[in-house]
Write the structure tokens for this entry.
Amino acid sequence: MKLLDRLMKIIVDRKIFCWDRKNLETKVLAVLIYQVGISYRKVRNVLECIEPFSHEALRKWYSKLKFLFVHKKKHRRAIAVDETKVKLENQWIYIWSAIDVDNREVIAIHVSTTRTSLDALYFLRKVLESCEDEPLILVDGGPWYRWALRRLGLRYDHQTFGERNAIEQWYSLFKARVKRFWKGFPYPGSLESIRTWTMAWCAIYNLCWR
């Protein structure tokens, strides 16, 4: 099933829109483009050749659908964390991710130019924003996590396989998608554009593939 079809099925099943004055596919496509970081007016200008709508209409559509892109704070038993690097021009950028190993939901993303204990501390605090309690953190051998985990008083377990496979599988999908950019993000780019794109891609992953 195509991505748009999957999203439209979710929306129809939940009966989010009461009126059908505009095509549902147009609404979903507009919201997805806006989620990537394009302004209301620019999205309207891009899609007006398909079906005209106002930027105010898009604002209302996004207001109804934005819950699809938000992580709910809840009890989580165990979280796997990891990071990978991608190239932006001649610079390596680090993408930090956390995934709930029970439901495979990506709950936190961080983008940085360094991979230090302070980066790990900032990232783990973002992870806790989606947790009602303090879950077990599953890590690999990266030394930058140890100080941060102890600083936050979090339980952790070093794993190479087992439940950490959830984060490895997630990164396999992520890297396969980034390879379409010739193994690096398009030039010109920025940390903010990478963060926005990655968060949008994660939102789609959480909705359609996990």
In short: The mean pLDDT is 86. Residues 2 and 199 are 20 Å apart (CA to CA).
